[in-house]
TrEMBL record, chain A:
Domain called SUF system FeS cluster assembly SufBD core: residue spans: 219-461
UniProt-recorded name of the protein: Fe-S cluster assembly protein SufB
One GO process term, biological-process aspect: iron-sulfur cluster assembly
Residue ranges annotated for the SUF system FeS cluster assembly SufBD N-terminal domain, each copy included: 148-210
Similarity comment: family membership: Belongs to the iron-sulfur cluster assembly SufBD family.
One Pfam family from the record: SUFBD_core
Transmembrane intervals: none
Automatic annotation (TrEMBL), chain B:
Residue intervals of the SUF system FeS cluster assembly SufBD N-terminal domain: 30-166
Parts of the chain that traverse the membrane: none
GO biological process: iron-sulfur cluster assembly
SUF system FeS cluster assembly SufBD core domain residues: 179-408
Name the record gives this protein: Fe-S cluster assembly protein SufD
Matches recorded under PANTHER family: PROTEIN ABCI7, CHLOROPLASTIC
Family membership: Belongs to the iron-sulfur cluster assembly SufBD family.
Length: 490, 437
C-alpha cells in the first residue's frame, strides 16, 4: 500500500528546499591553522587552558587515528573527505569566553533569537511554566558561548557547564569518566573526535538528585570550512535523574561540513538519563550539493543496577547520517530504550539505528524505529541486539517500520540479533499483541481495528517520550510524530 | 585492497595445491574453472570480517582440506547405498551419488518416468552438452566463495529436464562413505519447463566420525506456471562440514516450495539464492534445524523479487540444544520495478540449554514504494506456561518439551506436500528428540 496523501504532504513540508535555518551569521572568527597536526591539537588544548594529561590524551588519540581507516560498511556513499582541508577550531574572535550574556557578541545572540533558543533566563521564566524551564548550553562552532541557569543548578548540586570548563574545574571527575564508554580507540570518527574535540556539555547529577529542569545543548555550525567536534559527557550518580536535549542546525552552503561528535552517558545504580535529539543539520540542496556529514558516536552505559537510559531522536537533517546511539546494559535489571524517527528527503542518506548490549541479569530493552524515505534518499535502519552468556532473563522488543514515498528512494533494514543465553527472549517485530495484550484488547473492544490499535499504542508510546521535549524543540518533532505510517513496508 | 598482502592460510594453500593437481583431470572447460578459482583465491576463505560470513567464519572452521574423493568402485557404491536410510519409505526415482560421484548403474535410463530426462554432468562437461549454457541461472551467486569453490572443483553431477506433470518424485541421494575424510563437489541442474511440475527430494548422508567436506550446488530453472516441490534433508555424519547452495530462477505464475531440514553435520551452511523472474509467482522457502552438541548451522537466504505481484514466504525454525550455534541470515531485495511485492520472512529460534547461541540477521532492501515486506525474528526458551500446562496434565518434563519442540518445528515442515516425505521428516524430528532424552 502506498503512503497516504497526508503523510506525503507532511514530508514535503520538511523537504530539503524548505530548510529554515540556513542563514549565516557574520561574526569575526578566530581559527586554528587549517588542517590536522600535533600543532593544531596543541593549539586547541592551549586555547582551552587544558591540563597536561588532557593534551596527552588528545595526542595519543591522534597517533592512534593516523593508523586507522575510515569505515565503509555503512550504506552511504560520499566523496573522500580531505581531513587536512578543515579548520578544527573556530571561535568568535571577540571574547571567546564570555562571562555573562552581556559580553556575548550581539550578532550571536541574534542568531539564537532567530533560531528560537532562549538564552536569557528571565525570558524563559516569563514565557513558560516554571517546571518546564530549560537550561541551555549554546555551542557556536567550536566554543560554548552561553550556559544558562548554571547557578540555580549548582544549588541543587548539578554541574552543567561546557566540557572545556569542566576539564579545568572538575578535572578528577572528568578524568574518571571520560572515554570509559566510548574508548579513544573505539572507531575512526570517535578517535578523531578524541584528538580534536573542542566543546560540548558536561553534566554531573549527584546521588539522589532529580535535576530540577531540563538541560539542553544547542549546536550551531556557522563558520565555513570548519568541522564541529563536540564531546558530551553526562553522569547520573546513584538514584538521580536527568533529562537532556540537543538540537542542531547549520547554514546553507555548497560545501559539505563534517560533524563528528561523541556522546557518553553513564547511569549508576537506580539512575535514569533521558537523552533526546532533534537533529536538523542542513541536509544539502535537492541535487545533493552541500550539507552536513553527521558521523556521530553516541553510547550510554547503564553501569549500575536498575539504571535506565532512553535515547529519543528525531532526525530530519544532514546530508549523511551515520549514528547508532547505543546502550550497554551492564547493571542487573537495567533498561535501555531507543525511539527514533528518521525522515530523509532529497539526496539524503541515513544509516542509523541502535545497539542494545545485554550483559547484566534481567536487563530489558525496547527499540521503536520509524524511517521515512522520500525523494531520492536512502534510509537504512541498522541495529544490534545481543545477549551475552550471563544476561539471564534479558528481554528485547524491537519494532522498525519504514515507509517509502516515491520509487526513487530506498528503505533498508539490517538488524542483527545475537543471543548467547537461553533465557533471553528477543522479539524483532514479532506479533503486535506482544506490545501489550491488555491495551490491544481495550482498543479493539472500543471498535478500533488491530492496525489502528497498534498504531495508536506505538505512536502513543513515542509521543509519550517526545512530548517531554521542551517547547523550543517540540514543534518540529510533534509535526513528524503526527505522520501516519499507513502503508508501512515493514 | 591493493595495500593488503594476502597471507594464505594452510587450508587456502592446500586448496590451491589441490586445484593445481586436479585441474587437468577434471572434465570440461578448464578455463572457466581456473577463472572461478582465481576469483576465489583473490579473496581467500571468507572470515568473520566478511559481512556474509560474519557468523560462519570459514577461515577458522576449515583448517584442513580433505583430499578430493575418487570414483568409488561398483561394490563400494552398492555397499554405501545399502546403508543409506534417507526417505527410505518414499517411492521415488533414485538418482544416487556416492562420494560425490553419480552412480549411473543405479539408474535405468531406458525406463525413466515420462517427462524426465537425465544427463550425467561428467559426460556433459566432457562433450560440451548444450544444456551447460543453462548453468548459473543466478548470476550473482558466482560472487560467493563457496559457489566459486564448487565451480572450480565440481567433479560430477546430473542435469535433469522436467517436461509435463511428473508424478513420481525424483530423489537425489548423496552418500559419502569413504573410510577416511574426503572432499566432494557436485553440481545438479534441474530445468523445469513451462507448465511442468515435479517433486524433488534431496538427501545428504555421510559416515559418522569422519571429517568429510561436501560442497554441493543445486541449480534450478523453473518455467512459467511450473510447480516445484523441493525437500532437502541434511543427515550428514557428526564430523562432516557441509556447504551447500541452492540457486533458482523462477518464472511467472509459478509455485516453488523448498525446505531444508538440518539433522546432521558438525558444521553446515546452506545458502539459498532465488530470483523471482516472472509476475504472480509464489515462493516459499522454509528451514527446520535441530542442533545439539557443538554443532554450528547457518541458513543464508537472498530472495530477489524481480517482477510485479510476487509473493514470498520464508520461515526458518531452529532448535538449539547444548552448546550449539544457529545462524539465520536472510535478505529480501525489492527493486523499484517490483511493485505489489508481498514478502514475509520469519526466523524463530528455541534455546533449550544454557550454552547455546543464535544469531539472526533478517534484512530488507526495498526500493519500491507499493509493497508489503515484513520480517521478524524471535529467540528464546520454551514457554514456561505451556510447559506447566502439559506437566500439570501428567507429562514428564522431557515429554512436554518434546511435544512443544515438535509443534515448533512442525510449523515449518507441514508445508511439505508429499505425504511420505513429510512423514519421514516428522520421524527425523522424533528420533532427534528421542536421542536427546
Amino acid at each position: 500500500m502506498p503512503a497516504v496523501q497526508e503523510t506525503i504532504d507532511q514530508v514535503r513540508s520538511i523537504d530539503v528546499d524548505q530548510y529554515k535555518y540556513g542563514f549565516e551569521t557574520e561574526v569575526e572568527m578566530e581559527k586554528a591553522p587549517k588542517g590536522l597536526s600535533e600543532d593544531v591539537i596543541r593549539f586547541i588544548s592551549a586555547k582551552k587552558g587544558e591540563p597536561e594529561w588532557m593534551l596527552q590524551w588528545r595526542l595519543d588519540a591522534y597517533k592512534r587515528w593516523l593508523t586507522m581507516k575510515e569505515p565503509n560498511w555503512a550504506r552511504v556513499s560520499y566523496d573522500k573527505i580531505d581531513y587536512n582541508d578543515i579548520y578544527y577550531y573556530a571561535a568568535p574572535k571577540n571574547n571567546p569566553a564570555p562571562k555573562s550574556l552581556d559580553e556575548v557578541d550581539p550578532e550571536i545572540l541574534k542568531t539564537y533569537e532567530k533560531l528560537g533558543i532562549p538564552l536569557r533566563e528571565q525570558e524563559i521564566l516569563a514565557g513558560v511554566e516554571p517546571q518546564n524551564r530549560v537550561a541551555v548550553d549554546a555551542v557556536f562552532d567550536s566554543v560554548s558561548v552561553a550556559t544558562t541557569f548554571k547557578e540555580e543548578l549548582k544549588k541543587a548540586g548539578v554541574i552543567f557547564m561546557p566540557i572545556s570548563e569542566a576539564i579545568r574545574e572538575y578535572p578528577d571527575l572528568v578524568r574518571q569518566y571520560l572515554g570509559t564508554v566510548v574508548p579513544v580507540t573505539d572507531n575512526f570518527f570517535a578517535t578523531l573526535n578524541s584528538a580534536v574535540f573542542t566543546d560540548g556539555s558536561f553534566v554531573y547529577v549527584p546521588p539522589g538528585v532529580r535535576c530540577p529542569m531540563e538541560l539542553s545543548t544547542y549546536f550551531r555550525i556557522n563558520e565555513k570550512n570548519t568541522g564541529q567536534f563536540e564531546r558530551t559527557l553526562i553522569i547520573a550518580d546513584k538514584g538521580s535523574y536527568v533529562s537532556y536535549l540537543e538540537g542542531c542546525t547549520a547554514p546553507k552552503r555548497d560545501e559539505n561540513q563534517l560533524h563528528a561528535a561523541v556522546v557518553e552517558l553513564i547511569a549508576l545504580d537506580d539512575a535514569e538519563i533521558k537523552y533526546s535529539t532533534v537533529q536538523n543539520w542542513y541536509p544539502g540542496d535537492a541535487h545533493g550539493k552541500g550539507g552536513i556529514y553527521n558521523f556521530v558516536t553516541k553510547r550510554g552505559d547503564c553501569r549500575g543496577k536498575n539504571s535506565v537510559i532512553t535515547w529519543t531522536q528525531v532526525e530530519t537533517g544532514s546530508a549523511i547520517t551515520w549514528k547508532y546511539p547505543s546502550c550497554i546494559l551492564r547493571g542487573d535489571n537495567s533498561r535501555g530504550e531507543f525511539y527514533s524517527i528518521a525522515v530523509s528527503n532529497g539526496m539524503q542518506q541515513v544509516d542509523s539505528g541502535t545497539k542494545m548490549i545485554h550483559l547484566g541479569k534481567n536487563t530489558t530493552s525496547r527499540i521503536i524505529s520509524k524511517g521515512i524515505a522520500a525523494g531520492k534518499s536512502e534510509n537504512t535502519y541498522r541495529g544490534l541486539v545481543s545477549a551475552h552468556r550471563k544476561a539471564t532473563g534479558a528481554r528485547n522488543f524491537t519494532n522498525c517500520d519504514s515507509l517509502l514515498i516515491g520509487n526513487q528512494c530506498g528503505a533498508h533494514t539490517v538488524p542483527y540479533i545475537e543471543s548467547k543465553n537461553s533465557t533471553a527472549v528477543f522479539e524483532h517485530e514479532a506479533t503486535t499483541s506482544k506490545i501489550s495484550e491488555d491495551q490491544m484488547f481495550y482498543c479493539q473492544q472500543r471498535g478500533l481495528s488491530e492496525e489502528e490499535a497498534t498504531a495508536l499504542i506505538v505512536n502513543g508510546f513515542v509521543k509519550d517520550v517526545l512530548q517531554q521535549l521542551p517547547m523550543e524543540f517540540a514543534v518540529e518533532a510533534q509535526k513528524l510524530i503526527s505522520i501516519s505510517l499507513e502503508g508501512s513496508v515493514g | 585492497m591493493a595495500d593488503v598482502t594476502l597471507m594464505k592460510t594452510p587450508a587456502e594453500s592446500a586448496l590451491a595445491q589441490a586445484f593445481e593437481s586436479a585441474k587437468n583431470m577434471l572434465p570440461g572447460n578448464a578455463e572457466s574453472r581456473a577463472q572461478a578459482f582465481e576469483q576465489f583465491s583473490s579473496r581467500g576463505l571468507p572470515h568473520r570480517r566478511v559481512e556474509e560470513f560474519k557468523y560462519t567464519d570459514l577461515r577458522a572452521l576449515l583448517r584442513e582440506i580433505a583430499p578430493f574423493a575418487n570414483v568409488p568402485s561398483a561394490e563400494e557404491a552398492k555397499a554405501a547405498l545399502r546403508e543409506s536410510k534417507a526417505f527410505a519409505d518414499v517411492s521415488a526415482l533414485q538418482v544416487p551419488f556416492v562420494n560425490g560421484h553419480f552412480v549411473r548403474e543405479a539408474v535405468d535410463f531406458h525406463n525413466l518416468p515420462e517427462g524426465i530426462e537425465i544427463v550425467p554432468l561428467r559426460e556433459a562437461l566432457a562433450n560440451g552438452h548444450e544444456w551447460l549454457a543453462k548453468l548459473s541461472p543466478v548470476t550473482w551467486a558466482s560472487d560467493n566463495p563457496i559457489y566459486q569453490l564448487n565451480t572450480s572443483f565440481m567433479a560430477d553431477g546430473v542435469m535433469i529436464r522436467v517436461a509435463g506433470a511428473v508424478e513420481t518424485p525424483v530423489h537425489l541421494r548423496f552418500v559419502t562413505a569413504a573410510g577416511s575424510a574426503v572432499a566432494t563437489a557436485t553440481r545438479v541442474l534441474v530445468v523445469v519447463e513451462d507448465d511442468a511440475s515435479v517433486t524433488l527430494l534431496e538427501s545428504h548422508e555421510s559416515t559418522d566420525g569422519t571429517n568429510h567436506q561436501p560442497n554441493d550446488v543445486m541449480e534450478m530453472i523453473a518455467g512459467d506456471r511450473s510447480n516445484v516441490q523441493h525437500v532437502r534433508l541434511n543427515a550428514e555424519g557428526d564430523k562432516t562440514l557441509a556447504l551447500s547452495t541452492l540457486a533458482m530462477k523462477i518464472g511467472g505464475e509459478a509455485t516453488f516450495n523448498s525446505i531444508n531440514v538440518v539433522a546432521g553435520a558438525a558444521t553446515s551452511r546452506h545458502q539459498v539464492y532465488a530470483i523471482l523472474d516472472g509476475e504472480n509467482t509464489n515462493l516459499r522457502v522454509n528451514g527446520a534445524s535441530m542442533l545439539k552438541g557443538s554443532q554450528h548451522s547457518d541458513s543464508t537466504l537472498v530472495v530477489e523479487h524481480n517482477a510485479l505481484h510476487c509473493e514470498s514466504r520464508e520461515l526458518f525454525k531452529t532448535v538449539i540444544d547444548n552448546e550449539a550455534t544457529g545462524v539465520f541470515q536472510g535478505k529480501i531485495i525489492v527493486p523499484h520495478h517490483a511493485q505489489k511485492t508481498d514478502g514475509r520472512m520469519m526466523s524463530a529460534a528455541l534455546l533449550l540449554a544454557e550454552g547455546g547461541s543464535m544469531n539472526n540477521k533478517p534484512e530488507l532492501e526495498i526500493f519500491a514504494d507499493d509493497v508489503q515486506c515484513a520480517h521478524g525474528a524471535t529467540c528464546g526458551q520454551l514457554d514456561e506456561d505451556l510447559l506447566f500446562y502439559l506437566m500439570a496434565r501428567g507429562l514428564p518434563k522431557k515429554d512436554a518439551e518434546s511435544l512443544l519442540v515438535q509443534a515448533f518445528l512442525g510449523e515449518a515442515i507441514e508445508f511439505v506436500e508429499n505425504e511420505s516425505a513429510r512423514e519421514a521428516l516428522v520421524t527425523t524430528v522424533e528420533s532427534w528428540l528421542k536421542a536427546r532424552a
